[in-house]
């Protein structure tokens, strides 16, 4: 099982460590079984599959999604072995998307280590991701639940649509907030919601209760991505585990910048649009944007001046409040308390 994030300076970081510890303590034994299941699924005639899979799995990761599956099942009264396999399949899908996303985004660092495609090349990284998708699908088919299978299929479709939607408006400073939310709803929230809902399916709950657990995951997933997007403007590279301004370099106009652009004057908006256009041209000509960090300082200054990060975090907190309300009717207990801790951790974390 991965260790909880180490403490760093500041009360918010310390609180995040305390919160995630609550989650991990509740699901420690289950996550150890999930880790074992993940490694079992790397067996292949190709030596590259276990090598690439181990590279990604060993790089850390919060394992938040499988934890949510386990907790969702417990919240709904199920404590059996099926939750382990489904949780492992959820994490395997997440890992597959990371392999693919890093190729699409030309990301060179993942969780503080070289991305798989940097080490093994794009073709091998993509094919390894395909392998993990296939193994995850097999695990779900073996489980035998058509409800879980439906959730998985819909989630994979949504995630692919989200990636395509994002690519359609890359480097576009004029995207509306609705487009941003369409993207993160599919790319991020869909899988977190699926993690929770799949766990709940295993319990003997009503359809209304199932929808509540799925909604908890959706709201948590939206908040998680918004926090991620804010971190790109505020965290140092050591904490982030990726290059600063990675989103801007990849053409992703996220909520902190969108909120700042709403308050900018026309000249400031034009300068941001011009920079993004230049970065897009560099990426088109050279395969990646090689701009020095200093070139993005003006954008960071605008985001700070117009309180883009503060506005984004208010939105994230609103989503977390809706997540809390979604599971409020469930009986209080360790699983519910751990889910609430996971929700609070989502907006308190610094990485």
Strand content: under 5%
The structural domain count equals 1
Specify Rg, calculated over alpha carbons: 20 Å
CATH class: Mainly Alpha
The tally of helices reads 16
Estimated structural class: mainly alpha
Mean of all residue-level pLDDT scores = 89
By CATH, the architecture is named Orthogonal Bundle
Strand order of the largest sheet: 1-2
CATH topology tier name: Farnesyl Diphosphate Synthase
Helix content: over 70%
Which residue ranges are poorly predicted, with pLDDT under 50 across at least 5 consecutive positions? 1-9
Largest sheet: 2 strands, antiparallel
Element pattern in H and E: HHHHEEHHHHHHHHHHHH
CATH level 4 superfamily: Farnesyl Diphosphate Synthase
Give the overall shape, derived from the CA principal axes: globular
Using DSSP, what is the number of strands? 2
Distance between the termini: 18 Å
């Amino acid at each position: 099982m991965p260790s909880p994030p180490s403490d760093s300076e500041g009360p918010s970081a310390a609180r995040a460590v305390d919160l995630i510890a609550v989650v991990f303590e509740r699901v420690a034994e289950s996550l150890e079984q999930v880790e074992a299941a993940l490694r079992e699924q790397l067996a292949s005639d190709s030596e590259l599959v276990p090598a690439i899979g181990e590279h990604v799995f060993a790089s850390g990761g919060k394992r938040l999604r499988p934890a949510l599956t386990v907790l969702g099942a417990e919240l709904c009264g199920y404590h059996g072995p099926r939750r382990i396999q489904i949780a492992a399949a959820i994490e395997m899908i997440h890992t597959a998307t990371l392999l693919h996303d890093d190729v699409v985004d030309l990301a060179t660092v993942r969780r503080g280590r070289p991305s798989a495609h940097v080490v093994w090349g794009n073709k091998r990284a993509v094919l390894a991701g395909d392998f993990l998708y296939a193994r995850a699908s097999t695990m779900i088919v073996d489980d035998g639940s058509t409800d879980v299978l439906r959730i998985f299929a819909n989630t994979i479709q949504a995630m692919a649509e989200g990636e395509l939607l994002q690519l359609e408006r890359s480097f576009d400073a004029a995207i509306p907030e609705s487009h941003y939310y369409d993207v993160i709803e599919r790319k991020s929230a869909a899988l977190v919601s699926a993690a929770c809902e799949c766990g709940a399916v295993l319990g003997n709950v009503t359809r209304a209760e199932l929808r509540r657990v799925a909604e908890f995951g959706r709201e948590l997933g939206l908040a998680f991505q918004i926090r991620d997007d804010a971190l790109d403007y505020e965290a140092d590279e050591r904490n982030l585990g990726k290059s600063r301004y990675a989103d801007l370099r990849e053409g992703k106009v996220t909520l902190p910048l969108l909120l700042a652009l709403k308050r900018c004057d026309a000249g400031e908006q034009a300068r941001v649009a011009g920079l993004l256009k230049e970065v897009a041209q560099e990426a088109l000509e050279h395969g990646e944007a090689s701009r020095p960090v200093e070139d993005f300082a003006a954008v960071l200054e605008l985001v700070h001046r117009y309180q883009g990060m503060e506005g984004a975090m208010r939105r994230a907190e609103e989503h977390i409040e809706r997540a809390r309300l979604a599971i409020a009717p469930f009986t209080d207990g360790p699983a519910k308390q751990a889910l609430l801790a996971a929700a609070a951790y989502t907006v308190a974390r610094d990485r």
